[in-house]
Amino acid sequence: MASLAQQESESLSKNTKMGIQYRFQQEKVMVNAKHFLGYDKDEEGHLIINPAETEIIKRIFREYLEGFSCQKIARGLERDGILTSRGNPRWHDSTVRKILENEKYMGDALLQKTYTIDFLNKKRGKNNGVLPQYYIEDDHEAIIPKEIYMKV
Q1: Rounded to whole angstroms, how far apart are CA atoms 141 and 91?
Q2: CA dihedral 76, 82, 84, 85 (to 10 degrees)
Q3: What is the dihedral of CA 126, 132, 138, 143, to 10 degrees?
Q4: What is the CA radius of gyration of the chain?
Q5: Which domain holds residue 69?
Q6: Could you give the number of structural domains in the chain?
Q7: Which of 7-16, 29-38, 62-71, 141-150 is predicted least confidently?
Q8: Are 115 and 102 in contact (CB under 8 A)?
């Protein structure tokens, strides 16, 4: 029975991967906006700007260009009582760095940055050329202009 359950799980995993791959090839962006600061999703699943959170993103980019380190930006956000996308009052410099490096803030989308390594334990890993990646320009409204993003 366990063997059959494992085969079913593997088959389901392969079918899901194929569906995701097909959507990427069709340039359909899939983003978990639930924990994505600055954006929400509309009824059709497209990214739309969250006006309240947009100011936080703009602040992070502005302060970085002013010479603040990621750690100093994180401490300032904590000091001002600004919560992370998960509602956490604690900011890490790595969280700030990930925001600064995320191309979605300039309206583009790189798809398939990660992939599932093992379907059984749901282990995910960074995609370093194992699977194809898809880059889509101007997919959604940008919070940060491309020129500023490139400076950062």
Answers
A1: 26
A2: -140
A3: 0
A4: 18
A5: 2-151
A6: 1
A7: 7-16
A8: no
